[in-house]
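Same chain as my last thread, 279 residues:
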Amino acid sequence: MAKRPAVEFVLRPFEGLPGEPDYVAMREVVPAATATARTTAEHGARPVVVTTVLPAGWPALHRGDGTIMLALQTTAGSGDLSRDLADMLLLAMESPAGTPVTATRLPEPGPRLQDVLDLSVPFEVTVHEGFDYWRSEGVDLTPELSAVLDRMNETVIPTQRLTSVDAAYRAQMGDKDFLRWAQPHDEQVFLDALARLHARRESGLGEAGALGRFIGAFRSCGILVPVWDLDQDATLEDLETAVAALGERLDAALADDAPLDATQRRARAGLVARQLTLR
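reply #2:
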């Protein structure tokens, strides 16, 4: 029996796509959101709604109105999430309207999202308060799925996407608020930059970190997502201003290629100790 061709492992599966950090955020930290995409002319120039999740955990759906939907929070079957998602997307496009793709499969090497999607189309994210967008035209939810939707709406984590920077999301989790900001930069370069700020006590949000303090980061799909513990009383306007200011400090630190000094190296070691890898 011939050995099945294997898909090679890819550390950053969304690299090269518009909005790579938002792809990662929608896969890992955003409960309910949709974003815009379109297939290439070769694949019919079809509009695609990329979403966090679909009913019953479907990985993809060819909706009754012809809309193609692709869910990011699905189990990857191979070592390349982009290949897995492209496989589900193409399968949905081949399915009759009104048909969900009900399970993932282990694909062989083939086109990735970077091959199937038009890379000139911006990845514009809309965060939703719940999952009622499932009820769009062409989706007739069974009573069981409607009950699931109602339960999920009751437990969804309130989330806001900031507009002052890309891929930053505020989430209210119980009596805590957090900012999670997915970064597109090379991990080692970004850690150096953040260490420069941390050593100067400039890694927080607002004056002296009054609006939020850096508490750590997790790694997913090959990029870092730093996390800040926020002051719950901070207004969205104040937070936008503080994050924009931090973004400017990070840009300046990223442009600094001088070797880290002893204090910065100690700060960097502390940052590395507070990292977690999500698989």
